[in-house]
């Protein structure tokens, strides 16, 4: 049964397709912790999946174009909602998505909040409502991660809405630094809350350079999270300016905008408040938010090519270390003719070795149970 599971997963993954990895590390964890029942092996697949694993489909939500996004906001304002309320809901959703992203990257997720390594979070706030969402998110994140170092870069403060100044005061009261810049330092995560769906044209100073700075930070390992729209993108058509800016994570507010169809990264939807009648009017299907969550990832099978490759690489490296520890020193990097094997061939051999180990353990367990049963019968 184990061989059939491995063979099916392996053969469905061509060695020419790097994106189609055979088995993730958590699948092997599941496989190496089988339950034996009447001679059959139960394989509890993980909920963290790749394209080759059993998984759920992306969640359909519908998309808003620029006009509908504007009209929807106006409809909300005319029917009992106000700017402060919507901004609070949006910022809370962003903060919850960011917290989830940080938790996914944190191997110490079971450690008490006060004992965790402090996170370094940078928020870039634009002059409009998107920047206000970022300010709200900063405050909530400080509550979620009390030991974190959070800074807001807010280079063009607007006096258009008095509420923006109140949001700045709320942040500083929480010990959050709010400055005009610069963005110096090393950051675990950066929130792009510069431009929203009303943005048109080309980014001007200082934001054109800030977007480039975020791209440079991303190359150094900083996770970039965009609020509603990746800054500089056209709300309907995406990166038509060819900036090359592609954040790691997008948090769409209320519903994804048309440009999100072109977004290749991890995608959340937040804003759990839309009345059903209004959602229907704009052809929006609200995602099935779990529990009391204000945000939900709508592409749960997302995994970057880099992450897939790194996952295999780290798993295979652990296997090689195990072989060396046993004195075998067999890294299986070359075939019999001295040619380098591709990762699929190496991983195939890795799977076979693991299966042999698992089968031996299963046989030993079954043998022990037979002995115990025979003993009980004789008594």
In short:
The protein is of the alpha/beta class and 379 residues long. It has ten helices and ten strands.
The name of the CATH architecture of the domain at 66-300 is 3-Layer(aba) Sandwich
Task: List low-pLDDT spans.
Answer: 1-55, 305-311
Average pLDDT, to the nearest integer? Answer: 77
Task: Determine the structural class based on helices, strands and strand pairing.
Answer: alpha/beta
Biggest sheet details: 8 strands, mixed
Do you know the CATH topology of the domain at 66-300? Rossmann fold
Shape, per Cα inertia axes: elongated
Strand order of the largest sheet: 5-4-3-6-7-8-9-10
CATH class call of the domain at 66-300:
Alpha Beta
CATH superfamily of the domain at 66-300, called what?
YjeF N-terminal domain
What portion of the residues fall into strands of 2 or more residues? Answer: 5-15%
SSE run: HHEEHHEHEHEEHEEEHEHH
Q: What is the rounded distance between the termini?
A: 34 Å
Distinct helical segment count: 10
Cα radius of gyration in angstroms: 25 Å
How many beta-strand segments?
Answer: 10
Percent helix among the residues?
40-55%
């Amino acid at each position: 049964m184990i061989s059939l599971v491995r063979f099916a997963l392996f053969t469905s993954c061509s060695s020419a397709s790097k994106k189609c990895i055979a088995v993730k590390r958590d699948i092997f964890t599941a496989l190496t912790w089988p339950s034996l029942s009447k001679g059959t092996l139960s394989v509890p697949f993980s909920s963290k999946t790749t394209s080759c694993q059993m998984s759920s489909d992306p969640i359909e939500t519908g998309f808003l174009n620029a006009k509908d996004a504007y009209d929807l906001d106006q409809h909300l304002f005319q029917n009992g909602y106000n700017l402060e309320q919507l901004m609070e809901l949006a910022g809370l959703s962003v903060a919850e998505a960011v917290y989830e992203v940080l938790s996914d990257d944190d191997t110490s997720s079971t450690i008490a909040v006060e004992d965790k390594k402090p996170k370094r979070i940078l928020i870039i706030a634009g002059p409009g409502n998107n920047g206000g969402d970022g300010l709200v998110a900063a405050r909530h994140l400080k509550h979620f991660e009390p030991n974190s170092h959070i800074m807001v870069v807010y280079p063009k403060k607007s006096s258009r809405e008095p509420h923006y100044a109140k949001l700045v005061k709320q942040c500083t009261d929480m010990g959050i630094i709010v400055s005009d810049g610069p963005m110096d330092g090393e950051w675990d995560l950066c929130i792009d809350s510069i431009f929203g769906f009303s943005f048109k044209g080309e980014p001007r100073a200082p934001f054109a350079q800030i977007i480039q700075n975020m791209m440079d930070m991303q190359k150094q390992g900083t996770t970039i999270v965009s609020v509603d729209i990746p800054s500089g993108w056209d709300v309907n058509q995406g990166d038509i300016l060819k900036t090359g800016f592609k954040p790691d994570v997008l948090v769409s507010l209320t519903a994804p905008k048309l440009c999100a169809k072109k977004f290749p990264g991890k995608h959340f939807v937040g804003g759990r408040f839309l009345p059903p009648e209004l959602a229907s009017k704009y052809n929006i299907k609200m995602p099935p938010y779990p529990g009391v969550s204000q945000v939900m990832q709508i592409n749960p099978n997302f995994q970057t090519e880099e992450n897939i490759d790194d996952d295999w690489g780290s798993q295979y490296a652990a296997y090689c270390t195990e072989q060396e520890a046993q004195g075998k020193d067999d890294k299986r990097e070359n075939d019999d003719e001295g040619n380098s094997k591709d990762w699929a061939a190496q991983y195939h051999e890795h799977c076979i070795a693991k299966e042999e180990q698992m089968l031996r353990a299963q046989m030993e367990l079954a043998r022990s149970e037979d002995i115990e049963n025979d003993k009980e019968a004789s008594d």
